[in-house]
Deoxyadenosine/deoxycytidine kinase (Flavobacterium urocaniciphilum), 204 residues
Amino acid sequence: MHIAVAGNIGAGKTTLTKMLAKHFKWEAHFEDVDDNPYLDDFYHSMERWSFNLQIYFLNSRFRQILDIRKTGKKTIQDRTIYEDAFIFAPNLHAMGLMTNRDYTNYKLLFDLMEDLVGPPDLLIYLRSSIPNLVKQIHMRGRDYENTISIEYLSRLNERYEAWIQTYDKSKLVIIDVDNIDYVNNPEDLGEIIRKIDAEINGLF
């Protein structure tokens, strides 16, 4: 069983992934942030490094899914391959930060990979307002994220909402993270777990 957590930068994906993995005893796969050789350069020069960064993430996510499929274990994944292809890459292209040539190349690679891996059995989408995202980003204090603009986050949020409205590849749970605190409030975490339980019970 493959569960995936989606959401904008700062929505709380990694934290929730860890908590759900612990509760359900799932194996967790996380986004390759600390060892990513392009991330810091990207935030300082998006136009120069956008293609390199997106290819790195695409490769990393593709390998994760292959590993998940091979092991056959119950797994939860922090961020999906779809977010790279339907949100981050097209957003960079639309902002003029990725050339037509690079974006076409990227899309061809994604289409090939998508044919080889199936969707997750359940997608958990964390919906968040921009003020909440900004608060969370500042709280975790990653130096390279200090240059992220409100405009960039807003563009991503718009694409996330458009994507999730048409998402039909698997079962879907949407969680509005503005109005809950699943880190400090056990009742909020319990409500999320109940929603997930209701969905995954129908997967077997």
Observations:
- The radius of gyration is 17 Å.
- DSSP finds eight helices and five strands in the chain.
- The beta strands are 2-7, 27-29, 75-78, 122-127, 171-176.
